[in-house]
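check this one:
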Amino acid sequence: MTESKPQNRRLGYARVSTYGQTLDAQLEQLKAEGCAKIYREKASGAKADRRELLRMLDTLTHGDVVTVTRIDRLARSTFDLFAIVKRIVDAGGQFKSLAEPWADTATSTGRLMIAVLGGLADVERDLIRTRTAEGRSRAKAQGKHMGRPPSLTPQQQAEARQRRAEGATLKELAQSYNVGRATISRLNA
């Protein structure tokens, strides 16, 4: 006889940003909501690698209900919120926020709002991409170098090219300038 996982588990997720804050109020609300298992975390919501959140998402099964006290306990941006809720729904679970009744994927209104969030996340991603590209263009137009600074000064580059033309090996040059061989080989490109 195989043992099956219980269906419709109520899972809670509680998070505070700093160690000076307490989880007590969230834990109380989640227990009152009937959450048998509560994943607790003291980490910034901006961190993508929140261990307890990832552990909870990895254990989700069909019918599980993930509950938070407020949406900002789960995610810091529309894009992150949509990605996390999509992962819950894709696993066959439901999402519910106690402070935001519209954020309940068990209701048609909640599913509509999550779909709208998906659209907003796309817009947010496009705006970020556009602003980044505009900033990069402005910096280039002002003559600013993009990316990491060069490992070698222009004088060192010219010297290395000359030494390479005179027969020095990539390995010798890389060692003398304390850089990788690839840095020297790109000088001739």
Summary: Residues 108-141 form the longest helix (34 residues).
